[in-house]
Amino acid sequence: MKILKTIDLSKTYGKGESKVKALKNINIEIEKGKFTSIIGPSGSGKSTLLHCMAGLDDITSGKVLLDDKDISTLSEEKLSQLRRRKFGFIFQSFNLIPVVDVYENITLPVSLDSKNVDKNYVYEIIEILGLKDKIKKFPNELSGGQQQRVAIARALVNKPDIIFADEPTGNLDSKTTQEVINLLKLCVEKFGQTLIMITHNNEIAKMADVCIKVQDGKVLEQ
Ligand SMILES: Nc1ncnc2c1ncn2[C@@H]1O[C@H](COP(=O)(O)OP(=O)(O)OP(=O)(O)O)[C@@H](O)[C@H]1O
Q1: CATH number for the domain including 144?
Q2: How many angstroms does the Cα of residue 44 sit away from the middle of ligand 1?
Q3: Which residues form the domain of 162?
Q4: Cβ(47) to ligand 1 under 6 A?
Q5: Which keywords does this chain's UniProt record carry (predicted)?
Q6: CA of 47 relative to ligand 1 center, distance in Å
Q7: Nearest alpha carbon to residue 109 among 88, 79, 130, 138
Q8: Are 192 and 33 in contact (CB under 8 A)?
Q9: Is residue 50 situated within a structural domain?
């Protein structure tokens, strides 16, 4: 089953002389419950594609279908609700909140949406990600790998349908990278989520179920 599709998706930045065609008629389909990697050279349009699929960036033409519904025409308010409820995000810079502890960093997306925190589920995630003895720590007391594991826990806490990850291991050494990717895969498998991840790294791209190659704003192969 396909959870997300793009139809002739194009994105152009700027106007006139400074116009950049970042995406040119992209047609891709993302399989539900699978791990899809997006690989390509710097500037090829990977981040733009991810942002357009996740409703973080407006598109110039085409469609983005989530469960066959076009999300590119939604209002900013509806889009932000959709992102909060259905999507999880992990970025290269962990984007943790420095003044609250690990537990609060993880549970904040749920409390922001004024839903009750499912404590059993939160502790299950914390356990899997090996953060049990870290929940009272603050982000600056953690290593990079530990901080990224907190960011993964935070992305999972809403039980999102899709997790969008933009170079999540870009700031980590190769051993920690393997650990983090393995944990991410484990969580996705365990909770049946769909993972879409950008990477520069061929080895990581190969760990995915599906690999999409992007070059010069176009999809080379899926
Ligand atoms: N906000 C923006 N304004 C203007 N041009 C942009 C903007 N964001 C990206 N671009 C341009 O769009 C093209 C695609 O950029 P994008 O960031 O999607 O590539 P990428 O494959 O993710 O690169 P990297 O691997 O270096 O992060 C590039 O030519 C970039 O310069």
Answers
A1: 3.40.50.300
A2: 7
A3: 34-56+78-221
A4: yes
A5: ATP-binding, Nucleotide-binding, Transport
A6: 7
A7: 88
A8: yes
A9: yes
